[in-house]
Amino acid sequence: MEPSQPPRHIGRIRLSEIAGDWSENQALNPRLLASEVAGAIRSISEPGTPVAQGYAVVIGLVDNGPPAGIVTMWALADYFDGVSSGCVPDSMVTASGSIRAGTVLLSRSWLDRLVTEATECAAIASGLAQIMEAVPVQFGSSAALAYIQPTPPSGSDPECLAIRQTQQRQEGERSAGESLETAEQRTLLLEHENAKLRAQLASREHQYQQAQEDGEEHRRAALEERRQRTLAEEQLQDNAGIIAFMNPLNPLAPVEGQRLVSAWCVLTDNGDMDVVTQTGVGLKEHCRRWLTKLGTPTDVVVKRFVWALAWSARKKGGAVAKRQTEKG
Predict the structure, then answer these.
(1) 10 Å Cβ neighbour count for 43?
(2) Which regions of the chain does DSSP assign to beta strands (E)?
(3) Whole-angstrom distance, CA of residue 15 vs CA of residue 94
(4) How far is the C-alpha of 116 from the C-alpha of 8, rounded, in Å?
(5) How far is CA 55 from CA 43, 51, 116, 155, in A?
(6) Domains of the chain, residue spans
(7) Is it the case that residue 33 has pLDDT exceeding 70?
(8) How far from each other are the two terminal CA atoms of the chain, in whole angstroms?
(9) Edge-to-edge strands, sheet with 12-14
């Protein structure tokens, strides 16, 4: 199980207050922690290396004092060595001389990182110390063996640092693996979302295409309807005289003529049937039957209807189809 990560602080803390803060908030002994922090600082810097700007501020020297870098990394390490000895120093040595520890402010977040690294190295050193205690070192050739009490290792020893570097590398690989897995899951999710969007887009395109086809079909239907209406209007215009002729309210239209046209429409089924050929009954009888519906017709009226519907002098047309003369 991985150790729980300590909370990250914000702001700054006076150098003189760090030991007291560690006593209240750190599980590790403050003196041991100070020693490990000092070793950690020296392991990541060279003598004379200034503390990065923003990590350390000297009160009263920010605006008018010496340039940035007055506090060096190894000067801080020397201060923490003093804390580890059990006597918290009142001052620290800088490039500009000795200054009171209370005037130095350190970034809490940066200090937390140093404490975390020092705590991890201290745990490694503790493990190595237990191994060394379990395997005593003997010397001499007599039967009475003498043992050397091994010196407890420090977290800044090369062995501990090497183990810590291995841990960090493994943590980095694990973190990279987790990041890769997260990225792969994110990629799969994005691919799924893209597939859904592509399906929606294809559906929208199909709907759009269908709407275009429906619109084109409606347009063609409207054009055909307009053409048929125009044709009907033209036919009505061409037959306006016939319509006026058959209008019963038209005083200029002869009644007998209207009856004659009505009889022709009924007997020929509006010009589609030769009633004599189809029924085998003469035209005169058909005219008589039709006129009987209007009353009892005289022979003269019947004869007039027959003459008008089947005039013997006609060239073509009539209620009775003209027979073609067969040539021998």
Answers:
(1) 18
(2) 12-14, 56-58, 91-94, 97-100, 104-107, 137-139, 146-148
(3) 13
(4) 10
(5) 18, 7, 16, 23
(6) 12-132, 169-238, 254-309
(7) yes
(8) 122
(9) 12-14, 104-107, 56-58
Q: Which residues have C-beta within 8 Å of that of residue 49, sequence separation ≥ 6?
A: 72, 73, 74
Per-residue pLDDT tens digits for 204-254? 999 999 999 999 999 999 999 999 998 888 888 887 888 888 888 888 888
Residue 49 pLDDT > 70: yes
Confidence of residue 66 (pLDDT cuts 50, 70, 90): very low
Query: Which tens digit of pLDDT belongs to each residue from 116-153?
Result: 888 887 777 565 555 555 555 554 545 444 455 555 55
Identify the helix (H) or strand (E) that includes residue 243.
Answer: helix 240-245
pTM confidence score: 0.42
The Cα 169–Cα 177 span in angstroms is 12
Paired with 99 in beta bridges are 92
* Alpha-helical segments (H) within 5-138: 18-25, 30-43, 73-84, 108-134
CA–CA separation, 69 vs 114, rounded Å?
19
Amino acid type, 32: L
d(CA 113, CA 15): 16
Express as a percent the part of the chain with pLDDT over 70.
Answer: 74
